[in-house]
Every structure is written in structure tokens, then in C-alpha cells.
Amino acid sequence: QVQPVESGGGSVQAGGSLRLSCVGSGSSFSSSVMAWYRQAPGNRREFVARITSSSLTDYANSVRGRFTISRDNAKNTVYLQMNSLKPEDTAVYYCQQGVIWGQGTQVTVSS
Fold first, then answer.
1. Residue 2: what pLDDT?
2. DSSP characters for 52-110?
3. In the chain, which stretches have pLDDT less than 50?
4. For residues 42 and 92, is the Cβ–Cβ distance under 8 A?
5. Under 8 Å between Cβ of 93 and 6
6. Which residue, 60, 78, 103, 104, is the most exposed by fewest CB within 10 angstroms?
């Protein structure tokens, strides 16, 4: 299985927005659970959001109401819309397709 590829990270001020994208493996994408995790320096990797093949979603309490996960199976892509960003959202964000991890994309939120 091909590694998912994340994009869309960057630097933003607190209160701003970013949209992350993750292109997954084509052959099994539509049946895959897709998830976003993040890891800040010195911290463990933590769950952010998940979307099932039937588009059921789940969020970490820390991002619920601010982040939205969605998927476009025609494009083999999952998105993470991040609004009202906080400095504590600063981390490397990783996409996961099934059990396969992407290489991550950096998100930096300044106060």
C-alpha cells in the first residue's frame, strides 16, 4: 500500500484557518478509515479526527467544534478543515489510511 501524502500545512496566527489534504492509496481508499493525528515537540502522537468509509466522524475533545474532517472518494482525498486555530494546535499533522502513516505536514499557530 502506498503511503498517504499530506499537504496544506503552514504558519497562521491564532484565530486563523488552514485546510489540510491527504491523498491516499487509490485501490482501497473508499473502504478505508481515514484519520488525522498530530504530534507536538516532546509530546506523544495524539488522535485528532477520524472518518469511516460511510463518512461517520469522530473528533478529539480538544478540536471538536473547530475542526471538520471530510472525504472525497472520487479524488482519494481526505481533508481536515481547521478553524479558530490556537497556539496549542501547533504540531506535525499526520494522515493515516488504515494502519499506514503519511510523513506529516507542519502546522504552526502563533499568538
1. 85
2. -TT--EEE-TTTBTTEEEEEEGGGTEEEEEE-S--GGG-EEEEEEETTEE---EEEEEE
3. none
4. no
5. yes
6. 103
Structure letter (DSSP) for residue 43: S
**Which set of grid coordinates corresponds to residue 102?**
503519511
CA angle 8–73–24, rounded 5-degree value: 50
| Cα–Cα distances in angstroms (integers) from residue 68 to residues 27, 29, 44, 80, in the given order | 25, 19, 22, 6
Using DSSP, state whether 103 is helix, strand or coil.
coil
d(CA 97, CA 89): 22
pLDDT score, position 11 = 98
Q: What are phi and psi of 3, to 5 degrees?
A: -65, 135
pLDDT at site 105: 98
Find, among 29, 44, 43, 30, the residue nearest to 100 by Cα.
29
Cell digits of residue 71? 472525504
Half-sphere exposure of 87 (CA within 13 A, CB side): 2
